[in-house]
């Protein structure tokens, strides 16, 4: 175990000032994405150009293998556990494939106590935030979990991939970072310049224009461990401050922690390589392309004719939120003809995982 390090922490007073509340708008965001894609289709980069930003000095650079540690934060809820089990299954399936630089795996469990998956998934237990501090926004525990893990755990790899339970590895993942430039995924809705007045509360003018803030979240990100050790405490403190401010909380809602990470990175002068091929998000993305990760955060609802039904439960559907307290059954039905290949691939990968994970539907694994 590593010795304790000196790092910035949120003050007890700040923690006590936080109250309750959470803003969810999954389908609203889904529809916003759909309209954005239609509006922006003329400005898309060619499909074979998946890097939207990379510093000139590192383009084309290569070198020896640079393994990265795969880290996912999770809770002890059934909802988190079944997603982590599927994610870990696919991590093991692709880890040793050609081109992979994937290293060891850790589920950073921020429940403060072990759970029933300790023997199945490599797990490091950390403490949650004090009671009621997350105010129903459980993701607020994420930066605090990383601060503790980085401080206390022994991590052999020089780089870390911050991933999420609803990530499925489609193929072996290389290290997309370059030297001191981490790699992230560009989210179109992450636009600090459109919220400049709010952002300036946490990114003062002396730090430069708000365009220095990358259009990323904290996942997926591949980053040097030393850089994450520097950023994580700031990310935590910015998150707590943002959640404590009603105007900021209302502005950013459920993506508040994403903005907090992007702002914290910019405060430390860190810029990310932006990789569109890092992941896809069905049903918004209809083509698999050369992606590495499927992110199944959105509901997939289709008519019997294979037409997507925005904001309406379809004749066929898969939505992870339908399994917040239970499990997806083995052998989910495949979508009807005409549904995009990304959705078909997602369901087939979930079916393979649940068919091969021992004790998938054993209640003892979720107690």
UniProtKB/TrEMBL annotation:
Q: What cellular component terms from Gene Ontology apply here?
A: membrane
Q: Which residues form a coiled coil?
A: none
Record's protein name: Hydroxyproline O-arabinosyltransferase-like domain-containing protein
Instruction: Give the molecular function GO annotations.
Output: glycosyltransferase activity
Q: Which domain of life is it from?
A: Eukaryota
The UniProt entry lists membrane topology as: Single-pass membrane protein
Chief subcellular location equals membrane
Identify the Pfam families for this entry: HPAT
Cellular localization per UniProt: Membrane
Give residue ranges for domain Hydroxyproline O-arabinosyltransferase-like: 68-361
Alphabetically list the UniProt keywords.
Glycosyltransferase, Membrane, Transferase, Transmembrane, Transmembrane helix
């Amino acid at each position: 175990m590593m010795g304790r390090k000196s790092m910035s922490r949120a003050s007890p007073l700040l923690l006590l000032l936080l109250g309750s509340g959470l803003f969810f708008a999954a389908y609203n965001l889904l529809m916003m994405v759909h309209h954005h894609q239609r509006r922006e289709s003329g400005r898309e980069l060619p499909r074979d150009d998946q890097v939207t930003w990379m510093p000139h000095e590192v383009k084309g650079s290569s070198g020896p293998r640079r393994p990265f540690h795969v880290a996912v934060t999770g809770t002890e809820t059934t909802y988190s556990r079944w997603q982590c089990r599927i994610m870990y299954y696919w991590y093991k399936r692709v880890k040793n494939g050609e081109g992979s630089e994937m290293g060891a795996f850790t589920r950073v469990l921020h429940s403060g106590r072990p759970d029933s998956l300790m023997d199945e998934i490599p797990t490091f237990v950390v403490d949650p935030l004090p009671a009621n501090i997350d105010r129903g926004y459980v993701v607020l525990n994420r930066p605090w979990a990383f601060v503790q893990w980085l401080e206390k755990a022994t991590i052999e790899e020089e780089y870390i991939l911050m991933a999420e339970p609803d990530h499925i590895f489609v193929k072996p993942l290389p290290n997309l970072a370059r030297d001191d430039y981490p790699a992230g995924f560009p989210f179109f809705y992450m636009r600090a310049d459109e919220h400049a007045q709010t952002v300036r509360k946490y990114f003062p003018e002396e730090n430069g224009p708000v365009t220095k803030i990358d259009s990323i979240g904290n996942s997926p990100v591949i980053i040097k461990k030393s850089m994450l050790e520097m950023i994580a405490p700031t990310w935590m403190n910015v998150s707590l401050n943002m959640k404590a401010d009603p105007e900021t909380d209302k502005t950013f809602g459920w993506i508040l922690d994403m903005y907090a990470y992007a702002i914290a990175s910019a405060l430390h002068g860190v810029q990310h390589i932006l990789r569109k091929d890092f992941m896809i998000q069905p049903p918004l993305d209809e083509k698999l392309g050369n992606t590495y990760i499927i992110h199944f955060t959105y509901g997939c609802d289709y008519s019997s004719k294979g037409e997507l039904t925005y904001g309406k439960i379809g004749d066929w559907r898969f939505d992870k939120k339908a399994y917040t307290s239970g499990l997806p059954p083995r052998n989910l039905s495949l979508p009807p003809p005409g549904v995009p290949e990304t959705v078909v691939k997602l369901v087939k990968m979930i079916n393979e995982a649940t068919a091969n994970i021992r004790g998938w539907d054993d209640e003892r694994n979720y107690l």
